[in-house]
TrEMBL record:
The keyword Transmembrane does not apply. Residues 344-370 have a biased composition (Basic and acidic residues). This is Heat shock protein 70. Residues 344-394, 427-457 are annotated as: Disordered. Belongs to the heat shock protein 70 family. One of its GO terms (molecular function) is ATP binding. Pfam families: HSP70. Keywords: ATP-binding, Nucleotide-binding. The keyword ATP-binding applies.
Length: 457
């Protein structure tokens, strides 16, 4: 709706970056767009529930209810009717404070026959709602960080939603962009309706010449992925990826001769899927039996413009496949998204450490399996009728087990993470000492000097 009447303004080589700040009745939505003529590409989004006009009204309501309690020693909060009347009045006060420095109220028989009158200055209203105003700026900052864009690269800041008429909201937003002039060309109450009408016209093909070439490229609000055997999220489609889009990855088995594998689809930003939301899943069967890690299971995510996700899993060897369609029903609400994004950012360092720990364990297990396979193959092949000497076997040991058995980390490098299993080999000094002692004792008894090998299991 903003770009349509300004086509010539957006006829530049790389388009123009437009940040839309939508502060409505109950939500704050920030969208960063790149507009090139009639192509509108969404770069990133950030949304917050319970942040808008209703939240401002609630602050005024509590302020006046407290003032009524101080003046008359009665709590009007026990009366739903009194609260409803006062809430309606607070809505008018909020609107009036956008154009005047002070507003007054006068209500007859508000509670138990008591008349109530009071006044409030704009500065007091701003003080009551300062944390909410700052919350809106936090969403602007997050939107820019997700897009990896400096605020100086934003060409236009467009205000949408009735609550953007509040002077403090405008001044804070202007200060955030280093004094940049805000774009007030659109009616904040009509902008969303105009945009919805344009998009409807595009989708139905009934908009005429003015909108027939308009293209909106939306993004998915949350990362989508599958669960691996350790419960870790394997992301296929990251957050803020332009849709429609398609992505794929390869999974494998974690047990020998495994013929089925569960495919669980999650959305969220955490490394551990227990903190993400399960959207659905299925089990792929018919996998050809093979040693663990050998089968290749191709998983494909295909999401369309209506946010409908099609999931396909196929075993490359046997050709067995299964698919599932996941619609938006049951997906995360705005409240869920905001809560989970904040928690994911808070736990980011912990999630990264967990991913690294699991990656090391998987690498060690893979090397152990490869080492065992190499030994078996060499024993079968031999060397000119002579069996090849087996390589030094590797053992997976925790630090406590290694100390107890006097094992050494392979290569002499210990694990950096406490508690992680490490590649270990027997201590050669201890083995040599044991063999020498055995030979000495045997010679003293007139025997061959050989001893039984150490039991390392």
């Amino acid at each position: 709706a903003f770009g349509l009447p300004r086509k010539s303004y957006f006829q530049v080589e790389e388009g123009r970056n437009v940040l839309v700040f939508d502060l409505g009745g109950d939500t704050c939505d920030v969208v960063l767009l790149n507009i090139l003529e009639v192509i509108c590409g969404v770069i990133s989004v950030s949304s917050g529930p319970k942040l808008g006009g209703e939240a401002f009204n609630e602050r005024l309501l509590n302020h006046f209810a407290d003032e009524f309690l101080r003046k008359h020693k009665k709590d009007l909060r026990v009366s739903a009717h009194a609260l409803s009347r006062l809430r309606t009045t607070c809505e008018h006060v909020k609107c009036k404070l956008s154009s005047t420095a002070q507003a007054s109220i006068k209500m007859d028989s508000l509670f138990e026959g008591i008349d109530f009158s009071a006044s409030i200055a704009r500065t007091k209203f701003e003080e009551l709602c300062m944390d909410l105003f700052k919350g809106g700026l936090d969403h602007v900052d997050r939107c820019l960080r997700d897009a990896k864009m400096d605020k100086s690269k934003v060409h236009e800041v467009v205000l949408v939603g009735g609550s953007t008429r509040i002077p403090r909201v405008r001044s804070q937003l202007q200060d955030f962009f280093n004094g940049k002039e805000l774009n007030l060309s659109m009616n904040p109450d009509e902008a969303v309706a105009c945009g919805a009408a344009v998009q409807a016209a595009v989708l139905t093909g009934e908009g005429g010449e003015k909108v027939q070439d308009v293209l909106l490229l939306d993004v998915n609000p949350f990362s989508l992925g599958v669960e691996d055997p350790e419960g870790i999220m394997r992301t296929l489609i990251p957050r803020n990826r332009t849709i429609p889009t398609k992505a794929e990855l390869l999974l494998t088995t974690h047990k020998d001769n495994q013929t089925t594998i569960p495919i669980k689809v999650y959305e969220g930003e955490h490394a551990r899927n227990r903190d993400n939301k399960l959207l659905g899943g299925f089990e792929l069967s018919g996998i050809r039996p093979a040693p663990k890690g050998q089968p290749e299971i191709r998983v494909v995510f295909d999401i369309d413009v209506n946010f409908i996700l099609n999931v396909l899993a196929k075993d490359k060897s046997s050709g067995s496949q299964k698919q599932k369609t996941i619609t938006g029903k049951g997906c995360l609400t705005k409240d869920d998204i905001e809560r989970m994004v904040q928690k994911a950012e808070k736990d980011k360092a912990e999630d990264k450490a967990l991913q690294e720990q699991i990656r090391q364990e998987q690498d060690l297990q893979k090397k152990e399996s490869e080492s065992a396979s190499t030994i078996q193959r060499q024993q079968r092949e031999g060397n000119g009728g002579q069996q090849k000497p087996a390589p030094e076997p590797l053992y997976l040991c925790s630090p406590s087990e290694a100390a107890e058995r006097d094992y050494l980390p392979a290569g002499g490098v210990a694990s950096a993470i406490s508690g992680v299993f490490s590649e270990c080999v027997p201590n050669p000094a201890r083995t040599a000492a044991g063999n020498t002692a055995g030979r000495t004792a045997a010679a003293a008894e007139g025997k061959s000097g050989s001893i039984e090998p150490m039991d390392l299991d």
